[in-house]
Design a protein that fits this description.
mainly alpha, Serine Threonine Protein Phosphatase 5, Tetratricopeptide repeat, 2 domains, 13 helices
């Protein structure tokens, strides 16, 4: 493993630590959240309806740049999300740290909300603050069904983020090599992911898998032509 790999990984985790607190909620979460945002976080559909009927903008922002739909997504409040989408909420509206309802639902494996965003205009080419599609963090975090859903939707499997990593590389580099990530590697390869697309240091997926002792993943890569 190269020094530059360590440096990029350290930067990745340091940035995440600064941006995220307990439970994965942004520390940038504003004290100025509106009643609409608060209702969305609680999943209080009655208050949401009342607020919208009173003319509160469905895509109004709180101090962190979040829409109410993104607030509902953070809390995995599916019915609140459905109501907001039906009222015209933008599934691609990004907050101050470049999360959107679509990107966040994909990254966190929130399958019902992910499917909702895909059915209502999710931009499959949109990227997060690391320059990655929703597929990349879904693969890293072991969200098998989210990965399957995003592949089926048509997200590019070989997209490279600013760290120089694809979904396939992150499913190896940032995983424990266990059954979920083995299944994700299999899904990515079956969808046409390039088994020899190297990282920024020229290290290929098979080499990373071998270095970590991920035998099952290495076997999958070899079977797909990895070297």
């Amino acid at each position: 493993m190269t020094p530059s790999f360590h440096a990029r990984r350290h930067t990745l985790y340091r940035t995440a630590a600064l941006l995220f607190g307990l439970g994965g909620l942004p520390l940038l979460h504003a004290m100025s959240a509106t009643a609409l945002h608060e209702a969305a976080t609680r999943g209080d559909t009655a208050v949401l309806r009342q607020q919208l009927q009173q003319g509160v903008p469905v895509d109004g922002r709180d101090g962190a740049g979040r829409t109410a739909l993104l607030a509902a997504t953070h809390a995995n409040q599916v019915e609140a999300a459905r109501l907001l989408v039906a009222a015209g909420a933008d599934v691609n509206a990004k907050d101050a740290i470049q999360d959107s309802p679509y990107l966040y639902a994909g990254a966190r494996g929130l399958l019902e909300i992910l499917q909702l965003t895909l059915a209502h205009g999710a931009d499959l080419r949109s990227t997060n603050r690391y320059g990655g599609t929703a597929l990349i963090p879904a693969a890293e975090r072991g969200h098998v069904e989210a990965v399957r859903t995003l592949i089926t939707a048509g997200v590019e499997v070989d997209h490279i983020n600013r760290l120089g990593w694809t979904a396939l590389l992150e499913a190896i580099l940032l995983s424990d090599g266990g059954p979920r990530h083995q299944q994700i590697v299999q899904l990515l390869l079956a969808a046409g992911a390039n088994p020899n697309l190297a990282d920024g240091d020229g290290v290929r997926p098979l080499q990373h898998a071998q270095q970590r002792g991920y035998t099952a993943i290495a076997d999958l890569l070899r079977a797909a032509g990895g070297r």
